[in-house]
Known about the structure:
Strand content: under 5%
Distance between the termini: 15 Å
Mean pLDDT: 89
Structural class: mainly alpha
Largest sheet: none
Number of strands: 0
Number of helices: 4
Helix content: over 70%
Amino acid sequence: MKDLVKAFDELPWIAKLILCLPVLDIAWAIYRIVKGATTNNAVILIAGIVWIFFGCFITWLIDLVCVILYKKPTILA
């Protein structure tokens, strides 16, 4: 599972932007769930679960802005 987190972290910036689109944002939710489970961080794990349910509505926009500004999905991830 750590390999998945590492693979997402090493994606090129443009690929991270593409994964922020409304339907594809589920990938970042899965990333958060896996990262939360591997690091034993409950906040990231809960954020991943929330991202699955609200990803189509507003959280994709948060990810998009954060990838543009910080080159990673959110400060939490």
